[in-house]
Amino acid sequence: MALQFSATKINNAKTAIIADNGTVSDAIDISDGTLVGVYIPSGFVGTALTFQASNDGTNFFAMNVAGGALSYTVAASRYVGIDPKDFFGVRYVKFVSGSSETGGPLTLTASIRLIR
Question: What is the spatial distance between Cα 73 and Cα 17, in angstroms, rounded to a whole number?
Fold first, then answer.
């Protein structure tokens, strides 16, 4: 089983998958907007969500702010607001669960907004 992440923006959806027992999702392209929130599905195991960023979709790096990992405390069946300024300039993002995700597929929806 795999954990699916879905990113939505203005009538459009993108999906990233964390494989069963995995922690890191596939990448989503957010170049036409910025991440503003994440809906955490029921059944989500992790309690922390971190991120990896990339310019080219190949080389990914842990996202850091103020000298530490960009991390949000999460729980199943919750919406977590994300500070969009942390994602300005990011083209590709991966979601990283703090725990191995099992029992998938689960869909996590990332809110993407066009900010000009």
Answer: 20
Read off the pTM: 0.83
Nearest 5°: CA angle at 112, between 108 and 115?
165
User: Which one-letter amino acid corresponds to residue 86?
Assistant: D
d(CA 85, CA 87): 5
User: What does the pLDDT look like over 73-108, one tens digit per residue?
Assistant: 999 888 888 898 999 899 999 999 888 887 766 666
Rounded to whole angstroms, what are the CA distances from 7 to 1, 25, 65, 66, 108? 20, 12, 22, 26, 8
Helix (H, G, I), strand (E, B) or coil at 63: coil
DSSP code of residue 25: P
Angstrom distance (rounded) from CA 36 to CA 55: 19
